[in-house]
Design a protein that fits this description.
The N terminus is likely disordered. About 40% of the residues lie in helices and about 20% in strands.
Length: about 525
């Protein structure tokens, strides 16, 4: 008994591109000209950028008697955005074929819908289209030069490059994955990635179409942007001068890879044979020619000639990184979201006399700390909130801490924060009043808690508490635990600088508030650690 598969027209939001064919046809496996004893429908959901080619390939298959096991096969193709389809396909019935524009979405499918993971099979790539920088004519020279340093160079160069929203678009997500592939996974690479994410967060556009629209409306001032090779070729079609030029950053990069995904909860042997036969059709030379005709490359990203233009982007040889895995997609998007979170933090830096000691690299510890704070402030987005305190030990009734810059928006406070950070070396004197300062800083942030931001204290010291009037660590920990509210979390993240820092005390202070302690032994690491903590 033949079980019909759910038709793709069940997808209300899609655009159905269906082929109507006669019932009788030959058996594709056993030869043409034989009558069918039944019918089967393959429902295909395809990304709009490939749907026309999939429909054309299906029509050609039918013209050559598409059937398996004496059953006629009918293919119904629905074009639907991959992001929307990723949410829709789990509810489309017992069996459906999905060709998203990237493995990003098949990876997210099994992450977002774990209940159907066992029914999902991800096959081979159907086609490719490399991710490129669409450089506007006015910025082509600068973008090309920056791209010689790879993806990180292209995106952090002197000329701005807009990125489509990574959480909403394939191009954006693949851009992040290209960056990760270039930078690696070391601690230093994570710092570099986070810094780049912060720079990119202020250059996000909804999608690549918005980039092309901006170029159309403002050809001399619009920024370059991320797009696919196919989009650039299509945008330039019929134009005497290019709207944008595809620039390929050096090294390996990502591409749309259009995986053949089957979601099959229940099926028959005939359906399995039909599925396999259709997938085979998509790999035939004639199918590759059809894909090339809509400016898509084959699965290996081999160059092809578009019309008679031998200088077309499609003639460029490219090096592709492997298709993304589910963990890699999840991790990089989580890092992106974390980098985009609006932070509100108070930096509290020790300026006791010992901070004037040589750090080991020719600079004093307070000079290195000032440089670290300056670097962090430079990278912070305008929307963040930051403040700066310093502390040592002062005779009563004076506070042991000094507020150099109160908590406020970085956009309006940046110059004050930079100036205050640079002034710290001239302020170093006295002993270390660690406990009273930690409690005061926590209380200040906690009293003005903002629910829409990540609220925290970053406290850096090279010593131990030397305040005779406040010598009880247990009392401090008890006070912090009593004040800490997990529903309104304020974390104290501590940085132990050098061999004389009281790591044990700092770990207890951080643990009492759900924060972390970072131990820095080498001067060259101070900047990276402080920037890492501040920007996370």
């Amino acid at each position: 008994m033949i079980v019909a598969v759910v038709a793709a027209c069940a997808i209300a939001t899609g655009i159905v591109v269906a082929a109507a064919w006669p019932k009788n046809s030959g058996n594709a496996n056993a030869g043409a000209g034989k009558l069918c004893s039944g019918d089967m429908k393959l429902a295909v959901v395809a990304a709009p950028s490939i749907a026309p080619a999939i429909s054309a390939i299906a029509r050609r298959w039918q013209a050559n008697d598409a059937s398996v096991d004496r059953v006629c096969v009918h293919v119904s193709v629905t074009a639907q955005d991959s992001r929307a389809a990723e949410q829709a396909v789990p509810g489309l019935g017992t069996a459906v074929i999905w060709i998203p524009d990237s493995s990003v979405w098949s990876s997210r499918l099994v992450t977002d819908s774990p209940d159907i993971a066992q029914y999902v099979s991800v096959g081979k790539s159907v086609a490719t289209s490399p991710i490129v920088v669409a450089a506007t004519p006015a910025r082509l020279t600068a973008v090309t030069a920056a791209a010689k340093k790879g993806w990180n160079g292209a995106l952090t160069g002197t000329t701005p490059v807009a990125v489509p929203s990574p959480t909403d678009t394939t191009e954006g997500a693949l851009t992040l994955l290209s960056l990760r592939a270039q930078l690696g996974t070391s601690a230093a690479a994570n710092d570099a990635l986070g810094s780049t994410f912060l720079q990119l967060a202020e250059k996000v556009v909804p999608n690549s179409a918005a980039g092309f629209s901006a170029v159309k409306d403002f050809p001399t001032t619009a920024p370059s942007f991320i797009a696919t090779e196919q989009q650039v070729i299509n945008a330039n079609a019929g134009k005497s001068t290019p709207v944008a030029t595809a620039v390929y950053p050096s090294g390996a990069g990502a591409a749309l890879d259009f995986p053949f995904v089957s979601i099959t909860r229940s099926h028959t042997t005939v359906y399995t044979h039909a599925l396999q036969a259709f997938e085979q059709q998509l790999a035939q030379p004639a199918a590759v020619a059809t894909l090339n005709s809509i400016n898509l490359r084959d699965p290996a990203a081999e160059p092809f000639q578009t019309g008679s233009d031998v200088s077309a982007p499609s003639r460029k040889s490219v090096k592709l990184m492997p298709p993304p895995t589910s963990p890699s997609v999840t991790n990089v998007l989580r890092s992106w979201v974390a980098a985009g979170a609006s932070n509100r933090f108070l930096a509290v830096i020790d300026v006791s006399g010992s901070m004037k000691d040589n750090s080991g690299n020719g600079q004093s510890k307070i000079q290195v700390a000032a440089d670290a704070a300056t670097a962090a402030v430079t990278l912070m987005p305008d929307a963040w909130v930051a403040g700066l305190w310093i502390f040592s030990l002062r005779p009563a009734p004076a506070n042991d801490w000094t507020e150099l810059v109160p908590l406020g928006p970085v956009g309006s406070n940046r110059s004050s924060l930079l100036s205050a950070a640079r002034s710290m070396p001239s302020r170093a004197v006295g002993d270390t009043a660690l406990y009273s300062t930690a409690l005061a800083a926590f209380t200040s942030v906690n009293n003005h808690y903002q629910a829409d931001k990540v609220n925290s204290v970053i406290l850096m010291t090279d010593g131990a508490n030397t305040d005779p009037a406040d010598s009880s660590l247990p009392a401090l920990i008890a006070a912090l635990k009593q004040a800490y509210d997990p529903k309104r979390p304020v974390n104290i993240n501590t940085i132990a600088l050098g061999a004389d820092a009281d790591v044990n005390a700092l770990q207890q202070i951080s643990a009492a508030t759900g924060g972390r302690t970072y131990v820095v032994r080498n001067a060259q690491d101070i900047r990276n650690v402080f920037v890492r903590v501040a920007l996370r």
